[in-house]
Amino acid sequence: MSIWLNLPHRKTDSDEFYVPGFPENYRFYRSQLHRFLRKADGTDTWSRFFQTHISLSMKSDGWICNTIEEIEPLGLRLLRKFIGSPVWTIGPLLPTNSSMDSKQRSGKEPGIPLEKCIEWLNIHPERFVLYISFGSQHSISETQMMSLALGLEQSRKPFIWVIRPPFGFNLNRDFEAEWLPEGFENRTKETKRGLLIRNWAPQLEILSHKSVGAFLSHCGWNSVLESLSHGVPIIGWPLGAEQAYNSKMVEEEMGVGVELMRTVESMISEEEVKKVIEKVMNRGEEMRKKANEIAEHIRRAKEEDDGSSIRAMHDFLRIVSVS
User: Fold this and answer.
1) pLDDT value at position 1?
2) Can the keyword Transmembrane helix be found in this entry's annotation (predicted)?
3) pLDDT band at 183, cuts 50/70/90?
């Protein structure tokens, strides 16, 4: 129980706190913690579940991580120091666009035929479209959804939005028009400025299209890897799990994104949405340059024999074969 009471965010009255083991200039915030962790006391269900899993993980002979050495040097150094065991970086574990279609990858029927989606993308200039998706398990609140829609209209940037019911509703139910500003979908459809896709979208094909200039994402790790492997900068809106830390790394360490908002509880205005979208879409040359550099690192990591991820896999197999 005492270890939970001594967590860094419990030892300060400030929203900002320092985590031992990280560089002195690294700061974290209460709003980056999942609400379960903010309330954890060591006896709750969430705490007991993770105590068991973390304890067992620390007894393993090594960890396999879905990343590459070149994009997470600090995190991998800290992880290896903390667990004292080998860490094999064999990522990114992503399918190629041509290896299988979107339905095979997700197990779901896309909300739009791929051909229609590509046809819509083709009418827009290079790096001009904003792609928006919060993943398969998360959604923003009804109020946030309204502000995002109004901010998109104010920015006048074309967008593809993978849209699901707001937080608090069954994500598998039909989307209701009342969750968006009146006439929003019709206006965006008539002007060809917006494409709303229900439930599922061919994400890899969208991100690889030359007209896509940024990805507004919940920063789930798969989505981050998919975006960066195609050189697409990220606008972060983390909603749960480790997403706030992915967003933090994307912005502060990699320099390939900007965080717009975090959590489903926060309030956001349409003016803030417009401002950040314009910052990344209009003045994001340096972010795009760095994102393309990361995409090249990812490509090289998977090169046969010479790539860092291939070497890590060979080392893992060598260790396993002699154990």
Assistant:
1) 45
2) no
3) very high
Single-letter amino acid code for the residue at 250: V
User: In sequence order, what are the residues at sequence separation of 6 or more whose Cβ sits closer than 8 angstroms to the Cβ of residue 5?
Assistant: 41, 42
For the question of whether the overall pTM of this predicted structure is more than 0.90, the answer is: yes
3-state secondary structure of 29: strand
Digit-coded pLDDT (tens) for 17-68: 888 888 888 889 888 888 888 888 888 898 889 889 989 999 999 999 999 9
Does an H or E element contain 212, and which?
A: strand 212-217
Three-state SS for 22?
Answer: coil
Which domains can be identified in the chain, with CATH numbers? 1-59 (no CATH), 60-91+302-323 (no CATH), 102-299 (3.40.50.2000)
Residue 289 predicted with pLDDT over 70: yes
d(CA 139, CA 134): 6
- Contact present, 137 and 222 (Cβ < 8 Å): no
φ, ψ of residue 163 in degrees (nearest 5): -110, 135
Pairing label, strands 16-17, 28-29? antiparallel
**SS3 call for 131:** strand
The token pair at 293 is 């550099």
**Angle, alpha carbons 79-81-87 (nearest 5°):** 50
